[in-house]
TrEMBL record:
Protein name: Isoprenylcysteine carboxylmethyltransferase family protein
Pfam families listed in its UniProt record: ICMT
Subcellular compartments: Membrane
Transmembrane parts of this sequence: 45-63, 75-100, 134-156
Keywords: Membrane, Transmembrane, Transmembrane helix
Species for this entry: Ferviditalea candida
UniProt-listed PANTHER family: BLL3993 PROTEIN (PTHR43847)
Membrane topology category: Multi-pass membrane protein
UniProt superkingdom: Bacteria
Length: 183
């Protein structure tokens, strides 16, 4: 089980590192188009939560392994949901293209993207993150991490979605536009 855990966790950490590089590149492009960031004050809390997520999950899995516990018989269910979330993440990133970011950017004069999953959901990438944070720990029976991080993420998303919705309201003004959903 530990080998599988470290392989999957390593892949996810690598994925996050690549996403941060993409976000940085996209942020620079957005700023070059006259865009600007909004809601930066709460971003650090997401960074902290995601760091604690990996640390907490690893500690809980190592503790459970020391107790001789292995994957539950039903681990494929949360793993399948986690994999589906990855597909939805790729769809979100593809739909937003150069405007996908982990931060909230406003681009004057730009309309919100309404293609891909954004045709069906207001904030599909936040759904992806919520599924990931809940399901990945369940694969490895890290129940404490799954529950605590899911609740904390919901509290942070309440603030973030409020900030992003305000940016979307600004987008309907004739002289303003908005980025699109971030991670």
């Amino acid at each position: 089980m530990l080998g599988f855990f470290f392989m999957i966790t390593g892949i996810v950490v690598l994925q996050r590192a690549v996403e941060l590089l993409i976000a940085k590149r996209n942020g620079e492009r957005i700023k070059a188009q006259g865009g600007y960031e909004t809601g930066a004050d709460h971003y650090k809390y997401f960074v902290g939560l995601h760091s604690l997520f990996f640390l907490g999950m690893t500690a809980e899995v190592l503790w459970r392994n020391a107790l001789g516990r292995t994957l539950a018989d039903w681990w494929l269910l949360p793993f399948g949901l986690f994999v589906c979330a990855q597909a939805l993440r790729v769809w979100c990133m593809s739909a937003l293209g150069a405007f996908w970011n982990t931060r909230i950017f406003v681009v004057p004069g730009m309309e919100p993207v309404r293609k891909g999953p954004y045709r069906y959901f207001r904030h599909p990438n936040y759904l992806v993150v919520t599924i990931e944070l809940a399901m990945l720990p369940l694969v490895f029976q890290a129940y404490f991490t799954a529950s605590v991080v899911t609740v904390l993420n919901a509290l942070l998303l309440k603030k973030r979605i409020s900030v992003e919705e305000q940016a979307l309201v600004e987008a309907v003004k004739p002289t303003m536009g908005v980025h699109h959903e971030t991670d």
